[in-house]
């Protein structure tokens, strides 16, 4: 299953970059916001180069951002559930 490309508003990106510049670690902030760490690192690099906000970017509504965040969280939870199922099957096999 292909993961749909997510879009974020310029304000969201700026706030995330500001929090990293204020001292919060990229890993913890990415986890908190439901982002991939490399995406956040790319934003920080783009902000330093002055290219964070592309003029041709399409606007993203808060509802779309929330939906995108929920989709990524749902996929993460499904992966965790699969790991737990496999672990349960493995340990149940040993108990017999």
Fold and architecture overview:
With 96 residues, the protein is an all-alpha fold. The chain has one domain. Helix content is 69%, strand content 0%. The protein contains 4 helices and no strands. It has helices spanning 10-21, 26-33, 37-48, 62-95. α1 (10-21) packs across α3 (37-48) and α2 (26-33) packs across α3. The longest helix has 34 residues, at 62-95. It is elongated and about 60 Å long. The mean pLDDT is 84.
Which helices and strands, and how do they pair?
Blueprint: H1 10-21, H2 26-33, H3 37-48, H4 62-95
Helix pairs in contact: 1-3, 2-3
Task: Describe, in short, the structure shown.
The protein is mainly alpha-helical and 96 residues long.
Number of E strands: 0
Helical fraction equals: 55-70%
Class of secondary structure makeup = mainly alpha
Number of domains: 1
User: What would the principal axes of the Cα set say about the shape?
Assistant: elongated
Estimated share of beta-strand residues: under 5%
Order of helices and strands: HHHH
Distinct helical segment count: 4
Oligomer: single chain
What is the mean pLDDT? 84
End-to-end distance:
35 Å
Please supply descriptive tags for the structure shown above.
96 residues, mainly alpha, 4 helices, 69% helix, elongated
